[in-house]
Amino acid sequence: MPCMEVTNETTGINAIRKEWGLTGDRDGNTNQYSTEDIVIAVIDSGINANHQDLDEGKVLFFKDWTKRNGTEAYDDNGHGTHVSGIISGTGEANKNNQGIAPGSALVVHKVYDSKGNGPMSNVIKAIQWCIDNKDVYNIKVINLSIGTPSQNPNDPLCKIVNKAVRKGIICCVAAGSKESFFNASVMSPGLAKNAITVGSVADSGKGGVYLATFSGKGSPYISHIKPDVCAPGVNINSTDYATNDGYIVQSGSSMSTPYVSGVIALMLEANPELTDKEIKKILYENCEDFGPTGKDTNYGHGVLNPVKVIEMVTNKDIDYETGVHHFGFNYIFNLKKKEVKNHYFYIDDISKPIAINLLKPSKNAYSYFTYIKIYDGDNKLIENKQIVLMHKVISFIPEKVGLYKITLSAAGYMGGDVSMDISTSANKVYQQDPRKVSVEFYNQDTAIIKKYTIP
Length: 455
Ligand SMILES: [Ca+2]
Ligand SMILES: [Ca+2]
Ligand SMILES: [Ca+2]
Known about the structure:
The protein is α/β, with parallel strands linked by helices. Helices cover 20% and strands 29% of the residues. It folds into 2 domains: 4-314, CATH 3.40.50.200; 327-454, Jelly Rolls. Strands 1, 2, 3, 4, 5, 6, 7 and 8 form an 8-stranded mixed β-sheet that branches. It has a 4-stranded antiparallel β-sheet with strand order 13-20-15-18, with no helix packed on it. A 4-stranded antiparallel β-sheet has the order 14-19-16-17, with no helix packed on it.
């Protein structure tokens, strides 16, 4: 299923459009672009400014830092056009694929060539250009769906991002999209303290809300926790550079980052006075916490909830139920060697997928294996997986309502910490205490729904 359509619906972007009419337009004409609109700088591989969703003057300025040194806007790679469509695509070629802030305007810096390569020095120059020309183009946000491996949050790229934020430009940066055997896969400049560093989740249309296994994980050795926030980034449909009316599906934290940039554009349309600090506070306070309680190195503050964000900015609550809620075993438990632990959950709706995330957050995560088995109410084994890497997602559509059992066991010489999180867009019941012999299920008003006695 193409996902921009689902994402716009389940994460509440459509509800925001309907209720508040926010698009990122500030000059009073959504079909015309100027420096009065919310302006976002996209530092990437360029842009196809002839695409129906991105044309008619949306690109206020273009600069090519690559050897080709073009003067007209272009994209010979596709990454930048895809990212730009998620932020700002008008959806003229297909309304379902409209970007988050179709009324916003863009400043585009091409730093990557046709192969997606380019020296970091060019990225640094492009960010410095944005700082120098912030007031000329009214640049509010820089979108950096880019990254290079680093463990140093004070490398030159992180430093210039920190500087841009100090100068009043909000910087949204990708956490990175490389599946790793270890934690500490967040890249530079996602490591920058002042950045809003974005990891990836699948949305509820893609098998439940779960952390994408590729999503950059933060290092336990850096004093500030990264990433900061997660947003949809799995199978996202956006503008295809190769045509002027087509779309293409891509996945990555590169796709999650422009989602956040777009939401910030909507916030700034509603209140242009918001500062970087205020924006961060509102974004983070309104996340759905996943994984270990509080900010963690996998989800950051959690999964962004744009409706709650806009409600807070506008001081107006609407009746909207997000598809991004979840329930689960939101804690870390310790598995001792050869120990087996059982967990139970109840499913009341078989129309929606369920996703189970297992993360080994500890520093020795790679030193042991974990096995997970899932049984349905008839004790029929429906999943049996070995978890070797630090992160495993199990996603399935349940065949029957009722009680399900998860059995986790550690093998080898030692156990360790495992964090488990269960999400679905449908179920509102959750388990109170997995260690009780009797398990009670509550709805969100904590009214008891069902009580099971575990054999
Ligand atoms: Ca406008
Ligand atoms: Ca157009
Ligand atoms: Ca958390």
